[in-house]
Each structure stands twice: as structure tokens, then as C-alpha cells.
Specification:
Length: about 375
């Protein structure tokens, strides 16, 4: 019998007794609750990660919805509409963007439909007067912010800034088509509207349409956008969301287990009793004086231990002198003279000088022969 109990078998060892010969083990994470669970692994290698896919950083409340419908005037195509979902009627949508840190990616392997009657990269090029004659214009692929055509009233057509070295550029992708758009350079690209544009506000369903793609194939990628909560630019939020096909997608991802992650060390200042898996966020207590106005302030302390000391009237750290009214560096409660001693040592006296030290103020001396 070999190590697996097979008569005449060749397995020399099965050290962990899991029924797999040691030389045939596949190392990996074997815990199904882990983000990096490997169904093919036969032996745990200690690499399991429980917090990168769920329960780590909270997902943004702003989400992305991708809806689809069959194209009516472009046979065999599907129209994908992309909506940013906001939280409040006063939230303002600012921009869609991409750069070297946050890539804007749209994969359309079957290519996209571009109407020859819309020469613009945005919905601004869809002339309503032409739709009756060229209905496929309404099913064009374009970028937008809250518009299905040119801006009217207080709305504004989106503006575009882009790196000319991109292949393709945003404008080229939406005018000439392509199988993918990848905005990944330092300068990157962005289409945007100013805070004053009416179309920066969401519709009645709290949505803002930001892109339309018409294709015979599938869509997936990463969408990045910026929102001003309640219209306050200083509170801007930047959201990056992966998408694949249709559905509503969050910045927290739509796959993987949603583990309860947090600090599991009860001695930490941010201990989370609900956490099952430690995410490395624990902050251990450092006792000391945390009041920056104290003379023994500890810049490294995060837990105040009541040790703070303050300068007294004599500038002594932790001293007990309550007052030094005359500024003679003697505490008033032990000072025999709360005031100024004159040249004769008289408290608040008027003698300005006793040069010969004979105990008579110079201005009262009587000059004469004393022998």
C-alpha cells in the first residue's frame, strides 16, 4: 500500500492526510469565504484574503446602471444606456473622466454604430429636425451629460478635454467607432458641464444619462465620474465603477463574498465588535496628553490619560502659581510686596537711588562733615 492506501500505488507521501499525494498538491486559498478562493487548490497556502472584495472600504452610495434595448432602426444592434444614479435632487453631476490612475475603459469587441449624420462626439450633434428623415441618428453612439440632443434653455452641451495621443481619443471613438476606448494617460480625458448647467441635476428618478453605446456585441469596462453632493463643489466625490453587461453596479464591486471586515483587536481604539475578519485597520492606543495647548503635549498620543500639564503664572510646566501681578517672577501668594521695591527696599516706595548704601535715599541726603 502506498501513502494513499492504493495497492501497488506510487504515492510516496500524503503528509496532511487530505487524500492527495504531496507531489500532486495544488497550493492556494481553499476557504470558500475568501475573496481569492481557488476551487482548484487542494492545499491551503495561507494566502486567503477576506476583505478586498467585500466588507472592506464601503461602496459609494452613487451607482451606475446600464440598460439595454433592441435597436429599431439599426437592425441586429443593441442600444446600451449608461446612467449615474445620484442620491438627492440637488446633487450635481460634474464629469466623466479617465487618467493614468483611474482608467476609463469601454470595451466593445464588436465595434459600435456611428451615425454619419452626427459629426459630433456628443448628443449635441443630433439635430432634432433630421430625426424624421434619419431616425437611426437617435440610436447613435455618443457621450453626454443628461441630454439626448442639443442643449436648450439653461442646459449646456458637455465640453471635452482629451490627450491627443490616446488611440483612439474620446472624440474619435464616438465619431469613427472602435472596439475599445481606454483613457489611461497622465492627461487623460474628461467630458463635463459646469455647476450652473441645468442638466447637471438628475431627472425625476435621480438619474443622469452619461453615455449611449449601440453595438451588435457586448459591453464591459470601468466608468469614472465626479459628483457634487447637494451641489457643493468642495464636497466633490469621485467614483470608479466596473461594469459588465446590464445591471446596476457599485464601486464596491458586484462579485465576491461580502465579509464582515474591520478591526478585531479589542485593545485598539477602533475595535469593531461586529467584524469577523481583520482588515489591518487597527489603531493601537498610545496613552499621553492629547491637548495641543498643554506644555507636555504628546504628538504621538491618541488616547488622553489625564496627564496634561499647563504653564502657570511663572511659566513653570505644571506649576501652581496662580498669579504674578507685578511680573517680578515671584508668585503673589508668597511675595511680601505685590508691587515694586524701591532703592531702600520699601514696597512701592519712591526712593529711586541710594548709591552709597547708607540707608538714606540720595535725594534726602544732608551733605556735610560727619567726623
Amino acid at each position: 500500500l502506498d501513502a494513499l492506501g492504493v495497492c501497488g500505488g506510487t504515492c510516496a507521501a500524503d503528509a496532511d492526510g487530505n487524500g492527495v499525494c504531496d507531489d500532486a498538491e495544488v497550493q492556494g486559498c481553499t476557504d470558500a469565504n475568501a475573496c481569492n478562493y481557488d476551487a482548484n487548490a487542494t492545499q491551503e497556502d495561507g494566502s486567503c484574503d477576506f476583505c478586498s472584495c467585500g466588507g472592506g472600504a464601503p461602496a459609494s452610495p452613487y451607482t451606475l446602471t446600464v440598460e439595454s434595448a433592441p435597436a429599431v432602426n439599426v437592425p441586429g444592434n443593441t442600444i446600451y444606456r449608461f446612467y449615474a444614479n445620484l442620491m438627492d435632487a440637488t446633487d450635481k453631476f460634474s464629469a466623466v473622466y479617465g487618467n493614468d490612475q483611474q482608467n476609463l475603459v469601454v470595451n466593445t469587441p464588436a465595434g459600435i454604430f456611428n451615425s454619419s449624420f452626427n459629426a459630433s462626439w456628443s448628443a449635441a450633434g443630433i439635430n432634432p429636425a433630421f430625426l424624421a428623415f434619419f431616425p437611426d441618428m437617435a440610436e447613435d453612439s455618443y457621450a453626454t451629460i443628461g441630454l439626448d440632443g442639443p442643449a436648450t434653455g439653461t442646459a449646456a452641451d458637455p465640453s471635452l478635454v482629451e490627450d491627443a495621443t490616446l488611440v483612439p481619443t474620446v472624440s474619435s471613438y464616438f465619431v469613427n467607432g472602435g472596439t475599445s476606448l481606454n483613457v489611461n494617460t497622465l492627461t487623460g480625458a474628461s467630458w463635463y458641464v459646469l455647476n450652473t448647467a441645468a442638466n447637471a441635476l438628475p431627472d425625476a428618478s435621480l438619474r443622469v444619462v452619461i453615455m449611449q453605446i449601440t453595438t451588435t456585441g457586448t459591453v464591459d469596462g470601468t466608468m469614472n465620474f465626479q459628483v457634487f453632493p447637494l451641489g457643493v463643489g468642495a464636497d466633490q466625490q469621485q467614483i470608479s465603477i466596473d461594469f459588465n453587461g446590464t445591471g446596476t453596479f457599485t464601486s464596491g464591486g458586484s462579485t465576491g463574498p461580502n465579509n464582515a471586515c474591520g478591526c478585531t483587536d479589542a485593545n485598539a481604539t477602533n475595535y469593531d465588535p461586529a467584524a469577523v475578519y481583520d482588515d489591518g485597520s487597527c489603531i493601537l492606543a498610545v496613552n499621553g496628553c492629547t491637548d495641543a495647548t498643554a506644555c507636555n503635549y504628546d504628538v504621538d498620543a491618541n488616547t488622553d490619560d489625564g496627564s496634561c500639564l499647563y504653564l502657570d503664572a511663572l511659566a513653570v510646566c505644571g506649576g501652581t502659581c496662580a498669579a504674578d501681578a507685578d511680573g517680578d517672577h515671584i508668585c503673589d501668594d508668597v511675595d511680601p510686596c505685590v508691587g515694586t521695591l524701591d532703592a531702600l527696599g520699601v514696597c512701592n516706595g519712591t526712593c529711586t537711588a541710594d548709591v552709597d548704601g547708607n540707608g538714606v535715599c540720595d535725594d534726602a541726603e544732608i551733605l556735610g562733615c560727619m567726623d
